[in-house]
Amino acid sequence: MALTREDVLKVAKLSMLEFKESEVMVLQNELNDILEFVSKLDEANVEGVEPMTQVNDIYNSFREDIVIDSLTKEEAIKNAPEEVEGSFAVPRTVSEN
Length: 97
Hints:
Layout: H1 5-14, H2 21-39, H3 73-77, E1 83-84, E2 87-88
Antiparallel strand pairs: 1-2
């Protein structure tokens, strides 16, 4: 499945990225090369191979939960550049478009 120019532009829009026209074609070619490379994994014989989520024999290594003193809400917020109703106020990073 090759990506079209429109696919690249859609992904760019969703990612809130802007590209020059000359960059769109380069990006399209690079993304198609990546997809072609990844599609080679379909050729691998994986019969009898158990699915796994970790390549090492390491499992969750939880540490003991130790309760320690922490900042109060007031201490944490006192150096905030801006606060609203006792919470950190941060600039919007996602537009509504």
